[in-house]
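Q: Can someone sanity-check these two? First one:
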Amino acid sequence: MSGLVQVMASRTSAIWLGVALLLIIVAAHVVWLIEHMQTRDAAVREPYFPGVFRTMYWAATTLLSQGDQPPRQWMARVLAVLWMFMGIIFIAAYTAQLTTTLTVQNIRGAINGPGDLPDKSVATLKGGSAIAFLEQHGAIVREYAQNREVFQALMDGEVDAVVQGSAGLDYYATHEGKDKVKMVGPEFNQNDVGFVFPINSPLRKRVDGALLSMREDGTYQRIYDRWFGAQ
């Protein structure tokens, strides 16, 4: 239900509503003008006010359903038939847009990136580097001492999401959390990770060479896919 309310209050829905109002106003004025011009008897000729309000009501109800108070003049009635046809197309298009938006929202979920974190309950490791980032983005931070506590909080529904190092998240999503959790959004607040050796250490070139060879022959990617999932 909340998803429907969000969609109805979205910018897209506001645009559709604005287009509908514009169409109603245009159709109402055209019908009123035709009837006004085709009514020969000036005594019964309907003035702009309240005549345009009557035609606006007719245009609005016809756009949504079978409107009442049809136009009196034959030319206006021809236009009314075209307006009814346009109404069917408009409602069908809006319904399709609404259905697509709701379907995508249900598939994607409520959190799909850093922009969705404000006011969401987010778990992370106690003292981790993600805490400051989460607080700056308005998330409700829940700190846990161990990784298993972080993921258990997510599985128990105590938090809305988990934010920490991508390697740990990928591992959990590929193993214990497979088919239970989903990684969403791009990586953010990235930090470099690497090997550190003493200056002039002979191990540096050996490790660099081994890593390069593993990348070239595909070994590195196979190991990565096994433990962290295929990208």
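And here is the second, same format, sequence then tokens:
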Amino acid sequence: MPVEFVSASSRRRDRINKPAECAQAGIPYFMRVEFAKPHAVKVELLELDGETYKPLATALSGQTFKTDVPFPMNFDPAQLLESWYA
């Protein structure tokens, strides 16, 4: 499963082009992680639906990101900030 870390300098490529390329390749899941200031993060899991992705699970810092597919995950996205801003 590809995981894309969105950056301000490549936002269009990270949010539009890369998911489209993965969908075209038939990759069933795509995860996007966006860090924002001040100290916030959003995690989104997308599932292939035909030729495009649809949201499957989303959480912001302080919420719980939980899914059982493609494998069990259960965490607060804020945990990603611990190493990012360390």
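A (reply): Looked at the second one. The chain is about 25% helix and 45% strand. Residues 3-84 form one domain.
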